[in-house]
Amino acid sequence: MKNPSFGPTRTRSLIPLQRAKLPILAAMAASPLSAAIYQVEPVSGQVGSVNGSLNGWSVADHYGTSNYQGFIGDLGLMFVDDGSLPPIDTQSAGIFTGDSGDTYDGRLGINAFCIDSETGFVGAGSGTVVEYSAHSLGAAEARYLAEGVDGYRAGGLKRAAYLVQNYYEASRASGDLGASALQAAIWEVLTDEVASVATGDGNYYVRDNTSNGTLNSRSTQVVSLTSQWFNEAEIADWGGEDYDPGDDVVFWLDPEGLSENQSVISLNPWGAELSVVPEPALAMLVVFGMAPLVRRRRSA
């Protein structure tokens, strides 16, 4: 995702959701995650109450025919009503809480990454509801193919899931570099068959040829780390033809249409079941990591 404060970007118009707010369902602990409903409010930027849990850099990158510059890293999904969630071990990978004494004091959050490089979030103001349904890999891939997402390479979600399942913890250990590298790697495998984010390679890549030495250095480091992950993944054949992360990885997709809102991916720290065919229920999430909450949207 991009932070517009780092430079001009092509952005999606911020349209407040007109859908009716749904009540939070009680006693969902025994239900599949995809059958639950959660309510949140989007918050712009890496606010003080969560920015110690979010990592990323301003990086120069490229998609299609356009160059960009902005924040690339993870984002937080903060839940309003923790009591509606399935049971969870707060020590699980991908879990954090808002900083003590601040706006989101004690609120539960999970780290996630953007999937679509060009689709923005719907709404960025206080009180705006972002709606998602939780999908397994198979259910998410079926929707991507059926709805014809611009620029999507069939099988890309499978590789994105492999990266999150196998390199999330490594990315956290590498701080800002790791978060930028994992986000760039996810965008790369969604659009290019040969995985490489080196300058000039494929539809998506980071740029190390700008006039800014800091940005160039960061891109060089991102290329180095992602190249290591890609090489390891190739040796492992990306988990094989039948690879499936099962319930370990969650795809959060807009229930009314993939072009309606940015899709995101995260670990499933609950270990809760993901229905193969998603129920019509929604997950509503607070999204952090942008100011405002926008990633570039592809031109029509």
Task: Write up what this structure looks like.
There is one protein chain. With 300 residues, the chain is an alpha+beta fold. It has one domain (33-287). Helix content is 23%, strand content 17%. The chain is built from four helices and eleven strands; from the N terminus they run ββββββαααβαββββ. The strands form two sheets. Strands 3, 4, 5, 6, 8, 9, 10 and 11 form an eight-stranded antiparallel sheet that branches. A three-stranded antiparallel sheet has the order 2-1-7. β1 (56-63) and β2 form a beta hairpin. The longest helix has 23 residues, at 213-235. The chain is globular, with a radius of gyration of 18 Å. The relative contact order is 0.27.
Comma- or semicolon-separated keywords:
alpha+beta, 3-stranded antiparallel sheet, 4 helices, 17% strand, globular, disordered N terminus
For the sheet with most strands, the description reads: 8 strands, antiparallel
Radius of gyration: 18 Å
String of helices and strands: EEEEEEHHHEHEEEE
> What is the number of independent domains?
1
Mean pLDDT, rounded to whole units?
75
Beta-strand segment tally: 11
- Termini gap: 19 Å
Shape: globular
Contiguous runs where pLDDT drops below 50 for at least 5 residues: 1-31, 123-127, 276-284, 288-300
Q: How much β-strand is present in the residues?
A: 15-25%
Number of helices: 4
Estimate the helix proportion, in percent. 10-25%
Structural class: alpha+beta
